[in-house]
Amino acid sequence: MLERSVTVDVLKVVAAQLIVWHHFSAYGPMSDTMTLVWPQLMDWLYRYGRLAVQVFLVVGGYLAAQSVMNKPMTRPLTAIVKRYLRLVPFYLLALALISLAVAMSRHTIHASWLPSEPTVWQFLAHGLLMHDLLGFEALSSGAWYVAIDFQLYALLMALCHLFYTENYQRLSVAIALLCCASMWQFNRVEGLDIWALYFFAAYGLGVLAAWAKRSAFETRVFWLTALLAVGALWMEYRSRLSLALVTAVWLVIKPKRKVQWTPIKRILHRLSNSAYVLFLTHFGVIVLFSDMWNKSHFYDPYMAFGLTIFAWLCCVGLGLFMHEKAEVPMHHWVAQKSKQLLGR
Predict the structure, then answer these.
(1) Which DSSP string do the residues of 293-338 spell out, in sequence order?
(2) Domains of the chain by residue range
(3) Rounded to an integer, what distance in angstroms lies between the CA atom of residue 62 and that of residue 57?
(4) Which residue of 171, 184, 195, 237 shows the fewest CB atoms closer than 10 Å?
(5) Can you give the pTM of this predicted structure?
């Protein structure tokens, strides 16, 4: 809980903001205008801001592993269904709102990054978290990550069910072996980036980091896996894997401290909790501000920079608002109904 309150919150908040700024650098006329004055900054955000996804993957594995720590996974399908119901309701709401924003802006934004008008089958494929697998165009910039997160969680639950024993050693070794297979092979094949195996290098490091302090054996498993990750980087360097490795190592070596809640830490915790909503909704804000920019016929780079900062603040505020007023109530309602259904 201590790591969740401080270290993980910091990682999630920083990673979420970097991803938002990466998308501000990648989409919209304001990005093109700012590039005229700050080409190096915009290029850095575009090239390296996306790497923050690796932090989310490691943290996702870390939190998922904590949730099943010391618990036998006797009903993996139930856990997978609960995860699906945790992710999808607000995800579909966010996609509907973004599709509305895109429809409102389509007559002023003529760019390849703007999604096409959605079809029923396309929306259904998104709802099933299979749009990439079925070859449908994404309706939002964050849609792929939700699908991958669900695949990774389902894979972890299956492994926990298959390899669980009371001393946990067999399960840890299985996770480490699959993690190494991803590092050394699957993560090097770009065509596999719609499958969980491609991302299990980062996710598996997060899982092993969560279990590293449970026993001396699992500590050795983590450090051996980290050493093999260094070998994989020596064979073929990947900045995304190096960032995932550094994040996982930091989660292991970060000492526990007694948390004293301050106003800043409470704000940090709220921002961390709203990171998922921010990830899903900020693309709609980018679309609406791009529409406004085109209608206003602005051209000044400093105006573009100021409006981008304002748009970023709107993204953060919308994420907080939608998390507390929409996602949390939806989650509680769905959890209550699903508990009744699964109980039957």
Answers:
(1) HHHHT---HHHHHHHHHHHHHHHHHHHHHHIIIIIHHHHHHHHHHH
(2) 2-343
(3) 9
(4) 237
(5) 0.93
